[in-house]
Structures
1.
Amino acid sequence: MRRVVVTGLGVLSCIGKDVPTFWNSLVNGVCGIDYITDFPTDALPVKIAGTIKSDFNPEDYGMDKPFIRKQDPFTIFAMASAVQAMADSGLESGTNIEPSRLATYVSSGIGGFTTIQREIIKMHEDPSGQWISPNFVPTMIANIAGGQIAIRFNAQGSCIDIATACASSTHSLGEAYRAIRYGFADAVIAGGTDRTCIPIGVAAFANARALTRAENPKYASLPFNANRSGFVMADGSAVLILEEYEHAKARGAHIYAEMVGYGSTCDAYHATAPRPDASTQSACIRLTLEEAGFDVSKDKVYINAHGTGTLLNDVTETLAYKIAFGDFARKCHISSTKSMHGHMFGATGAAEAIATVLALGHDTVPPTINLDAPDPECDLDYTPNTAVETELTLGLSDSFGFGGHNACIAFRKI
């Protein structure tokens, strides 16, 4: 069976528009959640989010004005991360990898939300539809970010763009891992993207009672905290380059970590609530641990938790860890970086995978900030408030999405 390694990273988030800034923010507990300024929020029930800062310029990532003008923000965000990751990896289609052996798995939980909102408003104002953009469909479809990235980098292998809500990019990474492991690709541009912090997105998630109504943006995303009241929306993207080990070694690539496990299950229980006995979530984690060769006597584990800060998720996730790991759960170092960058929907799994890879590389556990009142039912080591330097050998990142989608991936130092 072929080995799979990480050779490139790229991220765009409210705590950094490049990987070094993102990591520096994580280890220093920087919160990127703030008041929404992109549109009026006076009439909306929620006024905070983790939005991309106004100094983000797509041209800095090699995108020209015609491309920028025609694309939905979720595609622009994805391209920014892909450009970073490909440059970091040194891969170049047709030079050091065959175009047919380079694949693209870039997910979105929703797709072109901004475009959908804009065009529906037009249709409402003029039911004839004469002002609907001819580019509406190829701009809003959820697979177009992956398609545009494949075009940009001449990636002629599979382009498979998974939509499993908040688990989308974790599933993309897992399926990309399998594609390389079983010989269907030599490298994959894998990750996720979403831009949901728009008026209809805020209204929809707020009315579903999923979002916190906290007024202080710096004390709003509170995973595993007894004061938590819902998640905080965030925008962004993240991309990792996964590559077959011998291929990467032969070209002298920098290797961040080895991907060693992937698990996927479905709650088959409820559209939005997790299965309360955590049986399916823990099974997902166990599958990952088995493939990763988890050794209770040797491994020192970091888990980047899904940790949304919702009442149901955090308790159920804690239970899942206890079932999957047994007594070892209390030895795991765990944190939810959503406390700093918010919930990035289709991008969140890939962003948290990057955090996991970097935690392994730096032997540093990023904190769960604002964890000043731990929920008694969330009684594992969730790394409150301050980063911890410690030896790590195995890193896990898990994601759970609406629809009962569960995904977990694992990395080791190489």
2.
Amino acid sequence: MTDVIQVDRSEDIGWAEPNSKTGNVMAQGRVAMMIGHHNFWTAIQKENPDMIARDQLGFFVIQDERPAVFQGGTLATVAAQSKLPAAAKALAEFLASEGPALAANQQRGNIPALKSLESSDFVQQNKAIQFAMQHFDSVHSEGGVPQWLDIRDKFKPAVESAMLGQKSPQQALDDLAAEASAALSGG
């Protein structure tokens, strides 16, 4: 990835389009490829609807040891100490049902976790979300340890330091691994 930025010069780092509605470099036609949140489709629709109309965006599943699409998510949980566990469970089930789930997904531009929502207008109008839902078999959750949210926040600065040439990719990864190890050990 660093060679794509630093050697091939696929993006003008630090350059901002003054008339940009969203700051989305893909919508501005300044990058050939990006990795990001699926809601970039909505940003591109706002900033460069012709790009959507001309069907100029494609998507791919990361291919390595196994195909992978990373997913996050919003959880509704019932605490073990809940004084009203039946009511809490009923609320969680309601929030996860089609109507409320679709409304929440529309509000945030998220991918519905319910396959039954694949035919909704919301999904049918967003090729990024359609692609994600068609590749649920390649979805892998991120994290898995209690310290994950602390570790996750360290990825972006590490990647940026390599992309901007402030550190070698190996040094950025080594530093990230050290920070993750420290977080896991409680340090």
